[in-house]
Design goal:
Elements lengths: L3 H10 L19 H12 L4 H11 L5 H10 L4 H10 L3 H13 L7 E4 L2 E4 L4 H15 L2
Antiparallel strand pairs: 1-2
Helix pairs in contact: 2-3, 2-5, 4-5
Length: 142
Amino acid sequence: MAAGPTVKQIMKTYPDKIRLVIKNYPYKYRDFAKIAAEASLAARDQGKYWEMHDILISRSPNLDRKNLLAYAEELGLDMKKFTEALDSGKHAKEVESDVALAESMDLYNTPTFYINGLQVVGERPFEYFKKIIDAQLTQAGK
């Protein structure tokens, strides 16, 4: 999902009103996409999901194991924990489950968002999301 800045702005605008659930759908034809998804989850374990997300987006396609370790070190992650998570495949099943979910929903584009069941495919400006979220919150009486 390359829409990190917009998502962060949405979450900041609607604290305690919306819930964000992120699922991984690594592109199957891109080298290192799966291990990069696992790296983002290993960083999440240490409270640095968005920081790793931003690095992965900005430095793609340099997402091999060596670079992922360098990015983790740059973020100040506990390297022992990060390396163990990456090498053990700690998050592999979670990523595989996310992929299976996406495929069961016939999703093939990233990012794809759902706002109370309304599908939004692709990156969109903040105002686009705000209009939908405001309408949904009004409808819900919040």
